[in-house]
Automatic annotation (TrEMBL), chain A:
<feature type="domain" description="DUF403">
    <location>
        <begin position="1"/>
        <end position="315"/>
    </location>
</feature>
<dbReference type="InterPro" id="IPR007296">
    <property type="entry name" value="DUF403"/>
</dbReference>
<dbReference type="InterPro" id="IPR051680">
    <property type="entry name" value="ATP-dep_Glu-Cys_Ligase-2"/>
</dbReference>
<dbReference type="Pfam" id="PF04168">
    <property type="entry name" value="Alpha-E"/>
</dbReference>
<protein>
    <submittedName>
        <fullName>Alpha-E domain-containing protein</fullName>
    </submittedName>
</protein>
UniProtKB/TrEMBL annotation, chain B:
<dbReference type="InterPro" id="IPR016450">
    <property type="entry name" value="UCP005522"/>
</dbReference>
<protein>
    <submittedName>
        <fullName>Circularly permuted type 2 ATP-grasp protein</fullName>
    </submittedName>
</protein>
<dbReference type="Pfam" id="PF14403">
    <property type="entry name" value="CP_ATPgrasp_2"/>
</dbReference>
<dbReference type="InterPro" id="IPR051680">
    <property type="entry name" value="ATP-dep_Glu-Cys_Ligase-2"/>
</dbReference>
<feature type="domain" description="Circularly permuted ATP-grasp type 2">
    <location>
        <begin position="78"/>
        <end position="453"/>
    </location>
</feature>
<dbReference type="InterPro" id="IPR025841">
    <property type="entry name" value="CP_ATPgrasp_2"/>
</dbReference>
Length: 335, 479
């Protein structure tokens, strides 16, 4: 497979997963605010600011907007094309990547993505606000699910598929760390509120942002417990959005690409992903909280970045060619 | 849908005799369309447009940063060619491409046709697209033009005339196949009864041709489509063909030349590639030989071809054959190389650089169509009879400054075809671009791209100038 194509497939998958995660996050938090109609401006900002911080784009956000409220945050994370990580930017980029590898993906995949693109191109924030954001986000989520279903149902299990899997789980792992981190960034409510209505609502929102509400409750019933929630989202061996599960899938995809047995490694990407996986396999939530949840999440994010970079180096990196030098060499050979 | 108010005017109408009666090969279609009501028809049209948009069957218009994608307007009324007419066209097109290929091989080797004084050497050697750099290079199977799109028109008597040959990177064949799909979906019951010859094997024939020119007979050839990239206006077509053939679509940056061999950069390292169907012009294909500022091409490609390790369709230097001045000489080429008379007629053409024609052109600009030798897409043209005084003067100056760069032709009253316009069928001018593949055999998929000038009275069919397309049917019989 062409290196460029592997790169395109990887990013296409990542962008779609990214858009879906953002969509869920926004939708859940907009819903959450409906429960707290009495909030004043300051409290609204307290609600949204952590979300912007967790996205990692707070600098750009505060360049473009004065303060974080429902309107500005939604606009920034959904529609603003100056933000290369907004939902719109992500879908546009995914579609551009898909266009470049049209010959490698199924026509159903391209058409569903292109459909979403055409819909978003015609959408604008005003009408979305008028007609209800819920419908809008629902449609994006639905398309993302359709797309991922099509990947599973229409793509040969070859290298291209594995690069898409790797991209999807890489993005998902990263987003789960960021969703967990939001709760860290939220200023703790007054001591009397811990375990109170607001606190519980926030934790539930967090679970919903990771599509984990039902899965969590199946195991822990109605016990909304921060420690357990964190454990579930980080270390669950079976839940498809837990960090551990995602890293397991990333590691497996890498080994299927190289054909190297899973207990060995053939490149740095495999070594690093195996290392992170065993750390997660044997990690405990108690140790994590002792170390500091935020610090631990930071640590995972940088491990993920390293795995991404070394995968790029192993498969997609093209030693830069100095075109001028190349031209000169060939000209000399022709003489 | 009714054709009661349809007027053929003073033109040759593809569907109706001057008497108003439908020509025999259109009768089944007429019957089907007569049973259709307008609402039904409009629904079908919208469904087709929507499906093109959804599937991204678009071309890019370069007018803003990202490029706007548009669908090619598609007219639901197909153009029909009866069996015997098509067989005649096939014979003529084959004769023409054989002669053009012999001509290209000759001028890049011995140049006998020039030495024998059949064509004045200056025309060929001074042509903008003559590539001195490939003189003496032997191409696999001696083929230069592997894919040719020859534009045909019909005059007021219904005679087919060759308008021009596109021997570089003719585009549009993906629309031939997609138009057929669209029409088939819109009228599912029409085809089995109409006896239309299929076109779906084009990609298969293209791949066969590419494999046939494999320069490395000891290897199963690795084939690709070489594209300038996703911002090119015909990118959809490049992907479409690669997908249909099941081969890689590569960009210049994916390729590298080492030891006179061409390699693709893959996840498993460098992998040799043997043949590409290239959709990048000569100028940009190899910056170590042609334009140094090109970032689309690959340095060293020409030397890999010269070493006999790599093949390209179309070959380098074919642009000289679609220089409009060379068009004038094609009948002579046919005579010279094949000893035959041309089967297909050409449009009467004058060369501004020939002394006897020069005065005639300069004095009759208001009656002639003037074309510059190397422009495409409907650019660089003067339509004398419809032009303003200023335009005519502008061209007079241009021709005086550089006569070699211009030809003039008598305006042809292009044939017309019923085409849906707002609420009824009206006659619109059309042309036809069949696609000719030159490999082990010469194959022409039955039909080709019928382009239609959608604007009333317009003669310009190019998509960049507001033209649309029609499905083109070649029948198994004459009715």
């Amino acid at each position: 497979m062409l290196s460029r194509v592997a790169d395109n497939l990887y990013w296409m998958a990542r962008y779609i997963e990214r858009a879906e995660n953002l969509t869920r996050l926004l939708e859940v938090n907009l819903q959450l605010l409906l429960d707290f109609e009495h909030l004043n401006d300051e409290q609204v900002t307290e609600h949204w600011d952590p979300i912007i911080r967790a996205s990692g784009d707070e600098e750009l956000f505060y360049e473009l907007y004065e303060k974080a409220d429902s309107q500005t945050v939604t606009d920034f994370l959904t529609f603003n094309t100056q933000n290369s990580n907004s939902v719109l930017s992500c879908i546009f980029s995914a579609r551009e990547n898909a266009r470049m590898v049209r010959d490698q993906i199924s026509s159903e995949m391209f058409e569903s993505l292109n459909n979403l693109y055409l819909f978003l191109k015609s959408a604008n924030s005003k009408t979305v606000w008028q007609h209800g954001a819920w419908d809008f986000y629902y449609r994006i989520k639905e398309h993302s699910h359709l797309f991922q279903g099509l990947v599973m149902a229409t793509i040969t299990r070859d290298e291209g598929f594995e690069f898409m899997q790797f991209g999807t789980f890489m993005e998902r792992a990263d987003k789960t760390t960021r969703i967990l981190d939001i709760k860290y960034h939220m200023l703790l409510p007054r001591v009397s509120d811990v375990g109170g209505a607001v606190d519980v609502a926030q934790w539930i929102a967090l679970l919903k942002s990771a599509s984990a509400f039902e899965a969590y409750h199946r195991i822990y019933v109605a016990d909304v417990n921060p420690m357990k929630i964190a454990e579930f989202l980080m270390f669950s061996p079976d839940f498809p959005r837990s960090i551990r599960y995602c890293v397991k899938e990333m590691n497996a995809a890498l080994h299927r690409i190289s054909g190297c047995p899973s207990e060995k490694y053939s490149n740095e990407a495999e070594r690093l992903s195996g290392l992170l996986l065993s750390e997660l396999n044997y990690g405990s939530v108690e140790a994590t909280f002792n170390e500091g949840l935020h610090e631990y999440l930071d640590h995972i994010q940088s491990r993920l970045n390293e795995i991404g970079a070394s995968t790029f180096k192993a498969y997609m990196f093209q030693a830069p060619v100095d075109l001028a030098e190349e031209i000169q060499q060939h000209q000399q050979m022709q003489q | 849908m009714t054709f009661e108010d349809y007027e053929t005017g003073d033109f040759f109408d593809e569907m109706f005799e001057p008497s108003g009666e439908a020509r025999p090969h259109y009768r089944k279609l007429l019957e089907r369309y007569s049973r259709l009501d307008k609402e039904d028809f409009d629904r079908k049209r919208q469904a087709v447009d929507l499906s093109f948009m959804r599937a991204g069957i678009t071309f890019t218009v370069y007018n803003d940063d990202r490029g706007t994608e548009r669908i090619m307007p598609f007219d639901l009324m197909p153009r029909i060619i009866p069996k015997s007419e098509w067989e005649f066209l096939e014979r003529g097109l084959k004769q023409r491409i054989i002669a053009l290929n012999l001509f290209l091989k000759d001028i890049y080797h011995e140049q006998k046709i020039l030495k024998d004084g059949v064509i004045p050497p200056s025309y060929v050697l001074g042509a903008k697209n003559f590539r001195r750099e490939i003189m003496g290079i032997d191409l696999p199977r001696d083929i230069y033009i592997h894919v040719c799109g020859t534009d045909l028109i019909r005059d007021d008597k219904g005679n087919y005339l060759v308008l021009e040959d596109n021997a570089r990177c003719p585009s549009g064949v993906s629309y031939v196949l997609e138009n057929r799909n669209a029409l088939r979906r819109a009228f599912p019951n029409l085809f089995p009864r109409a006896g239309v010859r299929p076109v779906e094997h084009y990609a298969e024939e293209l791949l066969k041709m590419l494999q046939y020119i494999n320069p490395n007979p000891n290897r199963a050839p690795v084939v690709g489509v070489l594209t300038p990239g996703s911002y090119n206006s015909a990118y959809f077509e490049h992907c479409f063909l690669a997908r249909q053939m099941g081969v890689e679509i590569v960009e210049g940056r994916d390729l590298v030349v080492r030891d006179f061999k061409v390699y693709m950069r893959t996840t498993k390292g460098l992998q040799q590639i043997d043949v590409v169907y290239r959709r990048i012009d000569d100028d940009f294909i190899d910056p170590s030989v042609f334009r140094e500022d090109s970032t689309l091409g690959v340095p060293g490609l020409v030397s890999a071809i010269r070493a006999g390790n790599f093949a390209m369709a179309n070959g380098l230097g074919t642009g000289v054959a679609d220089d409009k001045v060379m068009y004038y000489f094609v009948p002579r080429m046919i005579k010279y190389y094949l000893g035959e008379d041309p089967i297909l007629q050409s449009v009467e053409t004058y060369l501004a650089s020939e002394e006897k024609d020069y005065g005639f052109i300069i004095n009759n600009l208001d009656k002639l169509v003037v074309k510059s030798a190397n422009e495409a897409g409907g650019y660089g043209m003067l339509m004398g009879p419809w032009a303003s005084k200023e335009e005519i003067e502008k061209f007079r100056d241009l021709i005086k400054a550089d006569p070699r760069n211009f030809i003039a032709q008598s305006p042809i009253s292009l044939s017309r075809h019923p085409t849906y316009a707002d609420s009824a069928f009206e006659g619109r001018h059309i042309d036809l671009r069949p696609y000719i593949l030159y490999g082990e055999d010469i194959t022409i998929i039955p039909g080709g791209l019928t382009r239609v000038a959608l604007t009333k009275g317009s003669l310009v069919v190019n998509s960049s100038q507001g033209g649309g397309t029609k499905d083109t049917w070649v029948l198994n019989s004459d009715e």
